[in-house]
Amino acid sequence: MSMSNHAGSREGGEPEVVPAAEAGRFRLLQMRPRDPEEAGRTATPLELFFDLVFVVAVSVAAVNLHHALTEAHIVEGLLVYAVIFFGIWWAWINSTWFATSFATDDWLYRLLTFVQMAGVLVLAAGVKPAFEERDFSLLIFSYVVMRVAMVTQWLRASRWAGESRRATQLYALGIAVAQVLWLLSLLLPEPVSFVAIGVLILVELAVPIVAERQGATPWHPHHLTERFGLFTLILLGESLLASANAVIVAIEEVDELGPLLWIATLALVVTCALWWIYFWSPHHRLITDYASSVRHGYAHYFVFAAAGALSAGIEVEIDVLTGTSALDPLIASFTVTVPIAVFVMGIWWIALRHQRDRVVNTVVPTAALLVLLDPVLPFPVAVSAIILTLVVVVLVARAPEEAHEHGRMEA
Question: What's in the keyword line of the UniProt record (predicted)?
């Protein structure tokens, strides 16, 4: 399909291809399936803008998780964070999947993308009530707004979807039914509503699986994995920024700068190591069918959530230094090491283990376990930075074959 063509209509409802020169400015492109082998497919400026706005909500969720943890509301804080992050991640990943299959970048596509961005900003405003009052009303309303925009996108795509038509219709129907159920859940009393949230999360997760079995949508491995990688990159950057800001604020509240500067250094080292581990192995070759793409995408929930929570843990450690945390120092250290361990294990499971390198498949999971146990060691957090640095050294020494081939080609 030529992207310079626009969709009109003939008698009988058949789409008409109108040359761009003859089309009006507000004509819409035919939302046909994208070529899954399209050369040079990369993230667009709109997709990057979309990612940045979603990270705003992640940042707000991390800030509120930090407050919950430092006040020793550990279980409640983690549960609320998990639910909120699901809403952010699921809206993001669904839009990303749609974009890799049907993105047209015409004015209506952009407008509906902006609607989703507005929805996630409203969702960010609902994070604090969810943490402090267990009030999920604003979160649910904003989530429904984002998902209704996706229903519109899927319905539009169904007109020209060809063999994927049945799948696009099921996506639209499944998402629409789920949103009605989300709104009805607001009428339930509090104990029952929490159970309903868990059930509805399962319903949302099931929609793509059911839809794809009825007529697969095309997906572009390079495009998908690039989007995942870029979002991870932005999350790590946001986490590092939040940690740096926390250090700057705390400078005036501590008597000795040494421990604070040490935490700042460790935060940088750890974040850089996590970046290195994530991007060590190319991901696009790992999704060869729909089942593998589902595993790849769904597992990223834990990677993304861990990256978002890392800054909360760093800030908790800083609160311990400044004497403003209700947590025991040992427990506070776990708020840093658990996100690191989850991130490392997540990336190992998603990408690294498939390299079938025995050394890597031994070192990385072992490192994740040692990081998890770091708080019981004499120098909590510091040991994590050393362990991750050693992991990076191992990865450099055992670069995947594709990296060696690329290097030889450049030489």
Answer: Membrane, Transmembrane, Transmembrane helix
